[in-house]
Amino acid sequence: MSRDRSHQPAQAVPGPDPEPQSEPQPSEGGARPRSPSAAPPPEVAAPDGAAADATEALPFGRPGRPLGRSPFVFGFTAALGVLTAWLLVQALTATASILVLIVVSLFLAVGLDPAVRWLQRHGLPRWAAIAAVFAAVIAFFAGFGMAVVPALSQQAGQFAEQLPGYVEQLQNNSQVRELDQRFGLLERLQTYLTSGDLGRQVFGGLLGAAGVVVGAVFSTLTVLILTLYFLAALRSITTTGYRLVPRSRRARVRLLGDEILNRVGGYVGGNLIISAIAGVTTFFFLWVMGVPYALALAIIVAVTDLIPLVGAGIGAAVATLAALSVSVPVAVGTLVFFVVYQQIENYLIAPKVMRSSVDVPATATIVAALVGGALLGIVGALLAIPVAAAVQLIATEVALPRQERH
């Protein structure tokens, strides 16, 4: 059995023969006394040599004890952390609108990706499929503008032409004349019209409306451009995101992430199909009933139908008010049509279209739509349901099995 080399005696270095010395006598216990001139063992001298080498490696000496426990360092670190958090909050607040546009663009890109993949399966290269889908999106926005903007401008012109007649009808009304005799309404109205306040308010209102229109156009163009870039780079974005996950968990995260993207894409595609069906059905009904601007109203109904919970009611209200300009029976018939159609859409069309995309309980859908609408308005309501579906998938596949194991 071999001995540990650390307990073996050090070999003597060859040199001149030492002078003979008398051997010390053993003590009473039998142990031989140690010579004062004997060299210390190597294990005792090694730490001193290592410390000397470490000191020589550091030209400015050995560092002292760290200052981690100093109250000054702790306070400075805490203050720096609070300042960093405050700056991050300010940056997020300043860029909130841009971040919303980025999220909407990414959401649309994920929703349009199934259509791109469908075209790829039918023989088109990816760039051609992206170009075809994006051309369809641009055509929809162009058709919406061409159908709605002329109708709104024509209605505004007709209202301006008929405004004197409305004023004359008010003057001939007995109740208005009585109120004018009591409170002098017509005199006050005439004074207000002849003063400069009306012009300033109208001019400011026009500038405000122009600013809203310019902002809407800028936001729309930004969303379209970002959607195109995200749609073209969606594979690289997802691959880079998966590479940020540790390798031991990357396969499972990839499976869950792909399933979430498929559900979001299925939700967006299914919602677009349902809205298209609603728009086409509304157009034919309003066209048969003789309601003016049937195409513009049908597009408005299709766009508002994308909004969960309240979107269908908004579109129905707009179309019913437009039908009221024809006659009261036509307006009543329009209202009945929308009530019947909503039942058909909720119980026949939507379940078949959304069968394989998003399966979220009705209570979770309502709660998610309300919370999303309170946080981000219409955009939040649109994003709430797929986010709820993603949370439900993660809870079902990750959180609940982990709780069962414990």
Descriptive account of the structure:
It is a single chain. The protein has 406 residues and is mainly alpha-helical. It has a domain at 97-149 and 172-244. Helix content is 78%, strand content 0%. It is built from 14 helices and no strands. Helix 4 (126-172) crosses helix 10, helix 9 runs antiparallel to helix 12 (328-353) and helix 10 (294-304) runs antiparallel to helix 11 (311-324). The model is unreliable at 1-31 and 33-46 (pLDDT under 50).
Characteristics:
single chain, 406 residues, mainly alpha, 0% strand, extended, disordered N terminus, transport, transmembrane helix, cell membrane, AI-2E-like
Query: What characteristic shape results from the CA principal axes?
Result: extended
Largest β-sheet summary? none
Distance between the termini: 50 Å
Helix content: over 70%
What class would the helix/strand composition place it in? mainly alpha
Which radius of gyration do the C-alpha atoms yield? Answer: 40 Å
Q: Uncertain runs with pLDDT below 50, 5 residues or more?
A: 1-31, 33-46
Order of helices and strands: HHHHHHHHHHHHHH
Family: Belongs to the autoinducer-2 exporter (AI-2E) (TC 2.A.86) family.
Region (Disordered): 1-51
GO biological process, one term: transmembrane transport
Keywords: Cell membrane, Membrane, Transmembrane, Transmembrane helix, Transport
